[in-house]
Amino acid sequence: MCKVLVIDDEQMILSLVEQALLRMNYSVETAENGRKGIDKFDAGRYDLVITDICMPETDGNRVVDHIRHSSRHRTPVIGMSGTPWKLVNHMFDQVLPKPFQLDCLMETAKKLTCRVS
């Protein structure tokens, strides 16, 4: 079973993304900010990370930078953003501008985890 970490400071988006991924039979863990997301990433093993880009304290750019400089630097990372112009780097495997269709998220997740349903 693929394990996904979802990081977003907006509880509604966190819940929507989590529910969509659970319907696809992914194992999902969530974090409500970038710092907690980095802590969970360091403590666990994930097949995919999905992170908001604009969050207080530690933003998604720092999350992806941390992942890319870790021993698991090849972990696919999807950035979600209502402000894509705030992207600092191009380390994301994919960026989904908010609002996005859930089927677009699910197709992207399948593609990046090489899942066949």
> Could you estimate the helical fraction of the residues in percent?
25-40%
CATH class category label: Alpha Beta
How much β-strand is present in the residues? 15-25%
Work out the oligomeric state of the chains in this entry: single chain
End-to-end C-alpha gap: 12 Å
Q: Class by helix and strand content?
A: alpha/beta
Largest sheet: 5 strands, parallel
Find the CATH superfamily: Response regulator
Our count of domains comes out at: 1
Layout of SSEs?
Elements: E1 3-7, H1 11-23, E2 27-31, H2 34-43, E3 48-52, H3 60-68, E4 77-81, E5 94-97, H4 102-113
Helix pairs in contact: 2-3
Protein model, in words:
The protein is α/β, with parallel strands linked by helices and about 120 residues long. It has one domain: Response regulator (Rossmann fold). It is about 40% helix and about 20% strand. The chain has helices at about 10-25, 35-45, 60-70, 100-115; strands at about 5, 25-30, 50, 75-80, 95. The protein has a five-stranded parallel β-sheet, with helices on both faces. Helix 2 (about 35-45) runs parallel beside helix 3 (about 60-70). It starts with a strand and ends with a helix. The mean pLDDT is about 90.
Tell me briefly what this model is:
The protein is built from four helices and five strands; from the N terminus they run βαβαβαββα. The protein is an alpha/beta fold and 117 residues long.
Question: What key phrases describe this protein's structure?
Answer:
single chain, 117 residues, alpha/beta, Rossmann fold, five-stranded parallel beta sheet, 5 strands, globular
